[in-house]
Amino acid sequence: MDVERRPGQPVVVHVVGPVDLLTAPALRLCLEDNLDDDRGLVLDLGRVDFLAASGLTVLTDTETRARREHLVWALVANTRPVIRPLDLLGLRQRLPTYHSVPGALRAVAGARV
What we know:
The protein is an alpha/beta fold. The protein has helices at 24-34, 53-69, 80-88, 101-112; strands at residues 2-4, 11-19, 41-51, 73-76, 97-98. It has a single domain (2-112), classed as STAS domain (Transcription Regulator spoIIAA, 2-Layer Sandwich), CATH 3.30.750.
């Protein structure tokens, strides 16, 4: 995981590799630490090659917290290993999902105004 912080822009968390039972706890901690940033958060899953149920739980928990606390975030899902499980569970319609990091950045920045 790589956390990218640029002045005046949302925090971007880039995830590489699998999000599974072993790696989901680290993702959860990273999102918990960065979700309340005033600039918003973009979670880039463009280089994730496997998304397990534990990772999906982290995503839905993040959305629940964001709604409860009025926080702004977006998820980049543009590869089959990520899109397929999201679609199978109907989560792409429930989560703030975008096809690209620039699109997600625009959405988060626009929601903060």
